[in-house]
Design a protein that fits this description.
The structure is a single chain. The protein is an alpha/beta fold. It has 2 domains: about 220 residues, Type I PLP-dependent aspartate aminotransferase-like (Major domain) (Aspartate Aminotransferase, domain 2), CATH 3.40.640.10; about 110 residues, Aspartate Aminotransferase, domain 1, CATH 3.90.1150. It is built from 14 helices and 13 strands. Helix 1 packs antiparallel against helix 10 and helix 2 packs parallel to helix 10. The structure holds pyridoxal-5'-phosphate. Pyridoxal-5'-phosphate binds next to helix 3. The site of pyridoxal-5'-phosphate has 14 residues, from helix 3. InterPro entries: ArAA_b-elim_lyase/Thr_aldolase (IPR001597), Low_specificity_L-TA-like (IPR023603), PyrdxlP-dep_Trfase (IPR015424), PyrdxlP-dep_Trfase_major (IPR015421), PyrdxlP-dep_Trfase_small (IPR015422).
Length: about 375
């Protein structure tokens, strides 16, 4: 077996292909601070139309989109209600406290789907959802639940923000159009640097008034770019050409998970999209130790905080590599794990690992193009 190393730590690790580089090379070099970057304006208008929002604003990162959104939507001294483990909670809560003067009120539900009727406080000034949910293995927050959430908050005058860094994965997996997801929030952002494969960038979307104020904070935070054309062109190219390809990443993730589910030494959760969580706690070693063994076997993965490791499938990983990675990790687990006989007898893994919540998967998902 060749030892070609495979990097499944994240879907931010692919390289731009020649067509994306070509789009970047042919982009304008107008100064966006004077509103003169045609590629940037085109990207903003394209995304706003796609998600049914009035306006868009190109941002250097989804992290900054989220912080700017907090600044515009949240009330200083109020709290932001979200599910525990969301990117905001795990990586950006200190920034939210310092920059926007809010506290993140994180609640944990069994399935990862926020239900505000059980958790909202009198001080709740903003409801925050994430889709897909990274810490839950790329789980799709189902549209009917988001619609119900929007109705609940709408009646109380509380805005809803959607951290849609990987929202195009939900689109690709369900076939539900971007605008339907967009309608469940007052404002939202997506990230172009994950599975979509652009070098960096995000777009913040909302009403024209929201974007007008967001533009001011983008400048405060140092996110107003000058000649942003090439970056915007890469993002637009990624959205137009890589959105349907995400379904291939989902298929690779599912195959990888199905193979690992045949190992008696690990527990695998059926992935909705491109992130696979493999629970290694049965092996009686920490996820960090498993990560070291996996790297020695030529597969780079990340340790999670709940006894699991994660493997993420993006544009840089082929089906053949997904299979090879699963084989290597099965071998690693087998070497560590106590010898036990397989009693699975060819039962399809889908029958053994039931979905824990309803997700509608459309047959059209793989054939639709979102342009
Ligand atoms: C990656 C990610 C972000 C941050 O995006 P960057 O562009 O890397 O700053 C925010 N939210 C979620 C859910 C993400 O997955």
């Amino acid at each position: 077996m060749s030892m070609e190393p495979m990097d499944l730590r994240s879907d931010t690790l692919s390289r731009p292909d020649p067509a994306m580089l070509h789009a970047m090379a042919n982009a304008d070099h107008g100064d966006d601070r004077y509103g003169e970057s045609t590629a940037t304006t085109e990207l903003e208008e394209h995304c706003a139309a796609l998600f049914g929002k009035e306006s868009g604003l190109f941002m250097p990162s989804a992290t900054m989109s989220n912080q700017v959104a907090l600044k515009v939507l949240a009330t200083r001294g109020g709290d932001v209600l979200c599910e525990a483990g969301h990117h905001l909670d795990e990586f950006a809560a200190a920034a939210a406290a310092d920059l926007a003067g809010v506290t993140v009120n994180a609640v944990t539900s069994a399935d990862g789907f926020l239900r505000p009727e059980a958790a909202a406080l009198p001080t709740t000034g903003l409801v925050w959802v994430e889709n897909t949910i990274t810490a839950r293995g790329g789980r799709i927050h189902p549209l009917p639940l988001l619609t119900a959430l929007k109705e609940w908050t709408g009646r109380r005058g509380i805005p809803v923000y959607l951290d849609g860094a990987r929202i195009m994965h939900a689109v690709a997996a369900t076939g539900v159009a971007p605008a339907a997801w967009g309608a469940t929030s007052d404002a939202m952002a997506l990230c172009f640097a994950k599975g979509l494969g652009a070098p960096f960038g995000s777009v913040l979307l909302g009403t024209a008034d929201f974007i007008r104020v967001a533009r001011r904070y983008r400048r405060w935070y140092g996110g107003a770019l000058h000649r942003s054309g090439p970056a915007a062109a890469a993002a637009l190219w990624a959205l137009r050409h890589n959105s349907t390809r995400l379904a291939e990443d989902h298929a690779n993730a599912a195959l990888f998970a199905a193979m690992l589910a045949e190992s008696p030494h690990v527990e695998v959760t059926r992935p909705d999209t491109n992130i696979v969580h493999v629970d290694v706690s049965r092996l009686h070693l920490s996820p960090a130790e498993f990560v070291v063994r996996a790297a020695e076997a030529g597969v780079r993965v990340l340790a999670g905080r709940r006894g699991e490791i994660r493997a993420v499938f993006g544009g840089g990983t082929s089906r053949r590599q997904a299979i090879r990675a699963a084989e290597r990790l099965i071998a690693v687990a087998g070497r560590i794990g106590p010898a036990r006989t397989l009693t699975l007898g060819g039962v399809p893994w889908w029958d053994r690992i039931g979905p824990s919540y309803p997700v509608t998967v459309s047959a059209q998902a793989q054939s639709r193009t979102w342009r």
